[in-house]
Amino acid sequence: MLFVFPLLFVFTTVVIIPFIIGIGYSFISWDGMPLNEKIFVGFANYIQLLSDSRFIASAGHTVIFTIFTVLLINILGLTFALVVTSKLKVRNVARTMLLMPYLIGGLILGYIWKFIFTDVFKFIGETTGLTGIFFSWLLNSKYALVAMIIVTTWQMAGYIMIIYINGIQAMPEDIIEAAKVDGAGFWQTLFRIKFPMIMPSFTICLFLTLSNCFKIFDVNFSLTGGGPNNATEMMAMNIYNEIFSLNNYGYGQSKAIIFFIAVAIITLIQVSITKKREVVMQ
């Protein structure tokens, strides 16, 4: 208890208590000013969500972004892991280079790629004449969302690769060798031997990518700012704007509670499904 108490104290004061207070805020109407009155409105904030077209649109953007980004991150992360655990001579250098994007902060990363997608792409388009591909992506609603998917995938794939590497290296070599002796090819070994044994890594990676993509804010804030015309505004940024730009603390907090419940349900379902497919090694 001596070692656990400091962490438990910090977690309680920073997470648990503010979360409980936030639930209370979701039932009031308040502009955030300490001297102004807090008006109890019951479930009116939650009812208002049903007709909030901007919040519903941000939920749609978030779902589309999450589906494509989770798939790309895990496919690339697993591919990278298979490559760097092979007999590749530069595998250690490749592992380091692939992990480096994750070490860059999300806000800084967003500003770097914002320069690339606007100034650099525009310059390349004007120089090469390929203006149909190279133009200011962030000024186009469809391409701006694609840009967010690319940046987030580029950032997260290396980190997810590390988790898959641990799962691959933990596989018993005798099982792989036995499969080769029995005549199993590369694809048979991959899908029937390796994938089932690294299912715990799939569980962790899917959980991390799902939760992080649903909660994406820093890249959204610095790369697109939710634009153009709110076409890339994710749910986290919509909540941020509601509270800190429009000063609707109570209504914004009700959005945050619904957002928390939605993410919790989706991730719990994902974990329960992938857990059932894990292979218990004797």
What is the rounded distance between the termini?
33 Å
Oligomer: single chain
**CATH hierarchy: architecture of one domain:** Orthogonal Bundle
Structural class: mainly alpha
Q: Number of helical segments? A: 12
Query: Cα-atom Rg, whole angstroms?
Result: 23 Å
Estimate the helix proportion, in percent. Answer: over 70%
Summed up:
This protein is an all-alpha fold and 282 residues long. The chain has helices at 4-25, 44-49, 53-84, 91-103, 106-128, 141-169, 173-181, 186-197, 199-214, 218-224, 235-245, 249-276, and strands at 28-29, 39-40.
Record keyword descriptors for this entry:
about 280 residues; mainly alpha; MetI-like fold; two-stranded antiparallel sheet; 12 helices; 2 strands; about 75% helix; globular
List the helices and strands and how they pair.
Layout: H1 4-25, E1 28-29, E2 39-40, H2 44-49, H3 53-84, H4 91-103, H5 106-128, H6 141-169, H7 173-181, H8 186-197, H9 199-214, H10 218-224, H11 235-245, H12 249-276
Antiparallel strand pairs: 1-2
Describe this structure as you would to a colleague.
This protein is mainly alpha-helical and 282 residues long. It has a domain at 52-234: Orthogonal Bundle (MetI-like fold), CATH 1.10.3720.10. It is 74% helix and 1% strand. The protein contains twelve helices and two strands; from the N terminus they run H-E-E-H-H-H-H-H-H-H-H-H-H-H. The chain has helices at residues 4-25, 44-49, 53-84, 91-103, 106-128, 141-169, 173-181, 186-197, 199-214, 218-224, 235-245, 249-276, and strands spanning 28-29, 39-40. It has a two-stranded antiparallel ribbon with strand order 1-2. Helix 3 (53-84) runs antiparallel to helix 4 and helix 9 (199-214) packs antiparallel against helix 12. The model has no long low-confidence stretch (mean pLDDT 90).
